[in-house]
Write a structure and sequence with these properties.
With 376 residues, the chain is mostly helical. 69% of the residues lie in helices and 1% in strands. The protein contains 15 helices and 2 strands.
Length: 376
């Protein structure tokens, strides 16, 4: 009883210290008027998301089957709790943050370049293409290693994404709903081929871990590949203005001296690399790149440079909350995070489709793709 109370007191103390620090150092805008600090509306959402993510990240470190508190970590003993904290809890948290931020930004880039708010790695066949690449490595070159597997997953994901874009460009009539449905059908075809080959060569059990996303097996030494999302997100932020210009259309981009095809290829390559790294380490996690960018766009508009940070923060926060739910529902057992994300994401995706059909352009800023864009 006393240990549990001590654990709760320690966690509450940490959260209070973190909240006070954020309120004093970060919540306040650099703008000052008459000696008073002013929080600007532009940065309010970023402040709220960042604060919430920091607090929940601290709580996540102390959430699990084995009770760990601050006093236990600092006490002198066999060090088992400290080893679990360093080898499992911290790597798991970092993997969650990289996955959520990376997949959300990946979806944001695809939506901007394709001028369609329903396009994402899960509805553009990018995830299924990466899984097909992993299958090829398991069947034909099983001794290739992790990096070789990632390379094949990346190669197939970019090829699959480009096939999807090419196929959509060949369709004369398309709207915001038809384009993702084409991607879903194409993804299901790839998924069926992948399952057939896996069954034929008896690698179904090995491949199954890549079909259901889970952080249960994340430990130090086998998750570092997801860090690839961090530099890719930074690169996406640097080239955000080019993505905005390319998203307006091919002719507009050429008039401004921007090579439309190069920007399109570069953006889809970033998205595919993030998706391939996440699928290889964590497994399939759907809907993050679909629903998170749409939520942010509703409040902050379509400009990538103004929404990318909030998209990354909200994506990381969403995955972190889903992971905490997955760990807590049937404790001491754990549900795959793909199950939790799939339930919430599928409901929100259906709601977005219905809202679009009823309200047209008023629905989450969706409209017809412009002439010259990859999906319009």
């Amino acid at each position: 009883m006393g240990v549990g109370l001590l654990k709760k007191t320690s966690i509450i103390t940490i959260v209070r210290l973190a909240a006070n620090f954020i309120l004093k150092q970060w919540l306040v805008s650099a703008n000052q008027k008459k000696g008073e600090f002013v929080i600007t509306k532009k940065h309010l959402s970023t402040i709220i998301l960042g604060t919430s993510l920091l607090i929940l990240s601290i709580l996540s470190l102390f959430t699990g089957v084995i009770d760990i508190d601050l006093n236990t970590l600092l006490s002198v003993g066999d060090g088992m709790e400290l080893k679990i904290f360093l080898l499992s809890r911290i790597p798991r948290l970092l993997a969650i943050l990289c996955t959520g931020a990376g997949m959300s930004v990946s979806g944001l880039i695809m939506q901007q370049l394709c001028m369609n708010k329903f396009v994402s790695p899960s509805t553009g066949a990018t995830i299924q293409s990466a899984q097909f690449g992993i299958l090829l490595s398991l069947v034909w070159i099983p001794a290739v290693g992790l990096w070789g597997r990632v390379l094949l997953a990346f190669t197939m994901s970019i090829l699959g994404t480009w096939v999807f874009v090419w196929f959509v460009q060949k369709i004369q009539y398309k709207n915001a709903v038809l384009v993702p449905l084409i991607g879903i059908m194409f993804g299901n075809v790839l998924g069926g081929i992948t399952s057939f080959i896996a069954y034929k060569f008896e690698v179904t059990q090995q491949l199954s871990t890549y079909f259901v996303g889970s952080f249960a097996l994340i430990i130090k030494g086998n998750y570092e590949l997801v860090w690839l999302a961090v530099p890719l997100v930074i690169i996406a932020f640097i080239f955000a203005n080019y993505f905005n210009i390319a998203g307006i259309g091919k002719e507009f981009s050429q008039n401004l001296g921007v090579n439309y095809k190069q920007v399109l290829f570069f953006g889809l390559t970033i998205s595919s690399m993030i998706t391939a790294s996440v699928v290889t380490i964590v497994g399939q996690i759907s809907y993050i790149g679909l629903i998170i960018p749409n939520i942010v766009v509703m409040f902050k508009g379509d400009k990538i440079k103004g929404t990318l940070i909030d998209t990354a923060l909200l994506g990381a926060l969403f995955v972190l909350i889903c992971d905490m739910i997955a760990r807590s529902v049937i404790m001491p057992y754990e549900l795959p995070i793909e199950l939790i994300v799939g339930i919430i994401g599928s409901v929100m995706f259906i709601a977005m489709l219905i809202y679009k059909l009823r309200h047209g352009k008023k629905a989450i800023r969706l409209g017809k793709a412009k002439e010259g864009s990859c999906c319009g």
